[in-house]
Amino acid sequence: MDQRLSLVTLGVRDLAGARAFYARLGWRESPPSNAEVAFFQCGGMALALWSRDALVEDARVEQPGSGFANVSLALNVRSKAEVDATLAEAERAGAKILKPAGDVFWGGHTGYFADPEGFAWEVAWNPGFEILANGSIKLPG
Hints:
This protein has helices at 15-24, 52-59, 80-92; strands at residues 7-12, 30-34, 37-42, 45-51, 72-76, 96-103, 109-114, 120-125, 130-131, 137-138. The protein is of the alpha+beta class and 141 residues long. It has a single domain, classed as 2,3-Dihydroxybiphenyl 1,2-Dioxygenase, domain 1 (Roll). The strands form three sheets. A four-stranded mixed β-sheet has the order 1-4-3-2. The chain has a four-stranded mixed β-sheet with strand order 5-8-7-6, covered by helices on one side.
């Protein structure tokens, strides 16, 4: 199996509301978005928003509970200041700040927000990770 991640799909309760939130962040939908699903190009991978019920049916799993799903999404940025600015932008767009930005034990600077559906996003500056021109991340080594 190839070692890569191509697409993250968030099963959302309110597709229209989720779409509006990401639009307020300045994200643009990409083809093949339609009335049932929204796709966003994110560097070398993609994020999709799809109805939670449709995702549960498609995956043939039990209806999920509410609250933290033991998963966080991450946006790595190029500087400490960009962490702070990104968290502020997310909050203005309707996000809830879960953890304000701050320096962390491993030498980086991070904070967390939750989108209106409750999905946790970490915004992080890691001095050991290179962010390429297309926004993709290059791990050391």
